[in-house]
Amino acid sequence: MKILFHLNSMGRGGAERVVSILARAFAEKGDEVIVATQWYSENEYELGEKVRRISVGLTEADEKCGRVKRAWIRLWRLRDCIRQERPDLVISFCNKANFRSAFSLIGMKIPLLVSVRNDPKKDYAPYKLPTWLMEKKTAGCVFQTPEAQRFFAKKLQEKSCIIFNPLSENYLEDSNENKICVRKPEIVTVGRISRQKNQILLLQAFANVQKKYPDYVIKIYGDIQDEAVHEELQKYIKKEGLEAKVLFMGISDSTKEEIRDAALFVLPSDYEGMPNALIEAMAMGIPSISTDCPCGGSAMLMEHKVSGMLVPVGDGEAMEQALCYMLDNKERAERMGEEAKKILEKVHPQVVCRQWEEYIGKIMQNKR
Questions:
Q1: Under DSSP, is residue 348 helix (H, G, I), strand (E, B) or coil?
Q2: Would you say residue 12 has pLDDT above 90?
Q3: Model pTM?
Q4: What are phi and psi of 185, to 5 degrees?
Q5: CB 42 within 8 A of CB 62
Q6: How far apart are CA 144 and CA 161, in angstroms?
Q7: 105-144 burial by CB neighbour count: b if 16+ within 10 A, else e?
Q8: Is 30 exposed, middle or buried, given 0-12, 13-18 or 19+ CB atoms closer than 10 A?
Q9: Is the pLDDT of residue 368 over 80?
Q10: How far apart are CA 24 and CA 5, in angstroms?
Q11: What single string gives the DSSP state of each residue in 235-263?
């Protein structure tokens, strides 16, 4: 098969990581794979030598155009790419790329497979017309959770499936190890600094927890997506006197090695799709806490007080109690971390890639 993936970039996001794994796996088994992106990011996931990368984004001259014209240019660049390449299947990830793909394929018989990666109430509810066209045009959709699936029209639900995110290959060795871990007095969180990730919730809970556990620090890994949020975090840190307790680590190529011995991993997000950072932490056996956020990914990954702890979204008191419980009961927390490693049975890249292949096979069979 000739498969064309479309998404905004290959930057260090969850959807981009999944595309890098799928594209390389499909290319290795003999498919011709193209990844068409809108722009190049400073830090990107590798695609491998067998995957071809094409830019369908704006030039410097295009950037000077108005917003509407820029949108049309993006649309027609993708459409021209599809016309020239004539793939057997287009697979798109995330709302804007899904919308562009649906519009670009109008009048063509090439099937479209879209993937919904985040809370649809945030990503699709404000865009009724593009969402309607996407539902009509797509031959199938991969969701991460039933909650996300239920948001869309019945016809789309009927031709869709649910597939977990794959674990990155470089985390597999950690999930198979049974070494004794000496935990560092560190609480880590991984995710871009933004409203969605709600790092302030963790800091507010930690402000009280650190009085009981003064040796502990918080390390925040991820780039700054929202400068205003970063400034708010800095102001809160200064107000509470936490300058030596909260460290911004940025993007690291060795995050796995840096966090593997942390005492706790925390995901304080307001909403997520299927959180890759939580999957990775669980696979490494790091005792983990997550908000029970829409659209249900964390609750699918984790059983409360068995393989981690779930707390209500935005509930600082519950987050504080969960942090204290884990730090007060280190042996119990470690058992939760060991139980969390069983997530590998659902997220092993070979398992996930096989599920994608089987679903793609059904879509292509239905289109014949």
A1: coil
A2: no
A3: 0.92
A4: -75, 60
A5: no
A6: 8
A7: beeeebbbbbbbbbbbeebbeeeeebbebbbebbbbbbbb
A8: exposed
A9: no
A10: 12
A11: HHHHHTT-TTTEEEEE--TTHHHHHTTEE
Q: In terms of residues, how long is the chain?
A: 368
Q: Which fold has domain 2-166+348-367?
A: Rossmann fold (3.40.50)
Query: Quick one: tokens of 164?
Result: 């977990």
- First-to-last C-alpha distance (Å) of the chain: 14
pLDDT (0 to 100) of residue 174: 57
> What average pLDDT score do residues 143-156 get?
97
| Of 275, 297, 25, residue with least CA distance to 169 | 25
pLDDT score of 189 more than 90 = yes
For 193-222, write each residue's pLDDT tens digit. 999 999 999 999 999 999 999 999 999 999
Q: What is the mean pLDDT of residues 225-242?
A: 97
C-alpha to C-alpha distance for 104 and 82, rounded to whole angstroms: 8
Q: How many helices (H) and strands (E) does the chain have?
A: 17, 13
Q: In what order do the strands lie in the sheet with 32-37?
A: 51-55, 32-37, 2-7, 89-93, 112-115, 140-143, 160-162
DSSP string, 2-21: EEEEEES--BSSHHHHHHHH
pLDDT of amino acid 172: 84
| ∠ CA 86-89-92, rounded to 5° | 110
- 123 within 8 A of 130, measured Cβ to Cβ: no
Q: 3-class SS at 115?
A: strand
pLDDT, tens digit, for every residue of 69-86? 999 999 999 999 999 999
Written as six digits, the tokens of 41 are 């990011």
Mean pLDDT of 113-140: 96
Please report how the helices 330-340 and 276-283 are oriented relative to each other, as an axis angle in degrees rounded to 10: 110
How many Cα atoms within 13 Å fall on the side-chain side of residue 264? 28
CATH superfamily to which 169-346 belongs: Glycogen Phosphorylase B; (3.40.50.2000)
